[in-house]
Specification:
The protein is α/β, with parallel strands linked by helices. The protein is 45% helix and 10% strand.
């Protein structure tokens, strides 16, 4: 399976949209325009996009508190997302979910999650449904290095293996669970844990879109072929703090700037496709401009949109089938 020119352009477009979206949310939150709390995904774009390029609407993903990037990679509408984060009635969840509970079931995005380690059990259910109904769908849980230590995650590994589910566990190891270094807090290796449950585990350079894309391809093909669950340990870095307002005193003074200069996933992508003669710089520059304009329009619409009213308080209380 090869990436076409259209695939490459789409991959870069999704990564650039994530970066522009997160940078805009960072600015608007600092200006006091966004209620609640936000956790930003900037710097981790290659992981979400490298995986979700293999998925479609029949597939399900479960996210973390750091979920905006997963939403965009899965195809969620950026305008509706921005309105949701601003708490507006036209938002993706009618302004009631906000950043940490953003979801779009029509796109297979089961939701960001304020519960650490909350996603893996959810995707076991989604994967069981896909297997039972014979849809060919797969279910993917994005989990942080902190969430990888939760009992819910390890129990989900076991359940996925015992039931031979089309499930994929993506451990996005950005080096820190809040302020605790994963090099100190994670016993053993993530791929060793996968082996302990009898499923394949792959170490992946999360700064390299192509490395993630290839590892994800193998995992998705295994799952669709009925060969059971897989784990990807994706090493990457977040550019902003654990939360907006985090002073990041636990990181070296030049750590983020050095990573941006040497390993930024968008810059590495541009360099790789340019050196291979696959895309022209003008093509990527055009995407940069379009993404900036698109996200700027999302922010303008969000600022001007209406909040939920009193009558909205009693809606969306019960699910209907």
């Amino acid at each position: 399976m090869q990436l076409s020119r259209e695939d490459l352009l789409e991959a870069y477009r999704r990564m650039r949209l994530i970066r522009e979206f997160e940078d805009a949310v960072h600015e608007e939150f600092a200006a006091g325009n966004i209620p609640g709390f936000v956790h930003l995904y900037a710097g981790e774009e290659a992981s979400a996009v490298g995986m979700c390029m293999h998925l479609d609407d029949r597939d399900r993903i479960a996210s973390t508190h750091r979920g905006h990037g997963h939403c965009i990679a899965k195809g969620c509408d950026t305008r509706a997302m921005m309105l949701e984060i601003f708490g507006k009635r036209e938002g993706l969840c009618a302004g009631k979910g906000g950043s940490m509970h953003i979801a779009d079931l029509e796109k297979g995005m089961m939701g960001a999650n304020g519960i650490v380690g909350g996603g893996p059990p959810l995707i076991c259910g989604a994967a069981l449904a896909a297997k039972t109904l014979g849809t060919g769908g797969v279910a993917v849980a994005f989990v942080g290095d902190g969430g990888s230590n939760q009992g819910t995650t390890l129990e989900s590994y076991n359940l996925a293996k015992v039931w031979n589910l089309p499930a994929i566990f993506v451990i996005e190891d950005n080096g820190y669970a809040e302020s605790t270094a994963s090099s100190w807090s994670v016993g053993g290796s993530q791929t060793g844990r996968a082996a302990g449950f009898g499923m394949p585990g792959t170490e992946v350079d999360g700064f390299d879109f192509f490395a993630v894309w290839e590892a994800a391809r193998e995992a998705v093909e295994r799952a669709r072929a009925g060969q059971g669950p897989s784990l990807l340990h994706v090493r990457l870095s977040r550019y902003y703090g654990h939360f907006e307002g985090d002073a990041c005193t636990y990181r070296a003074a030049d750590e983020v700037e050095r990573i941006k200069a040497e390993k930024d996933p968008l810059l590495l992508f541009r360099r790789r496709v340019g050196e291979a003669g696959l895309l022209e710089p003008e093509d990527l520059d055009a995407i940069d401009r379009q993404a900036r304009e698109q996200i700027a329009a999302c922010v303008r619409d969000a600022k001007g949109a209406a909040y939920p009213g009193e009558a909205d308080l009693t809606t969306d209380v019960y699910a209907s089938y």
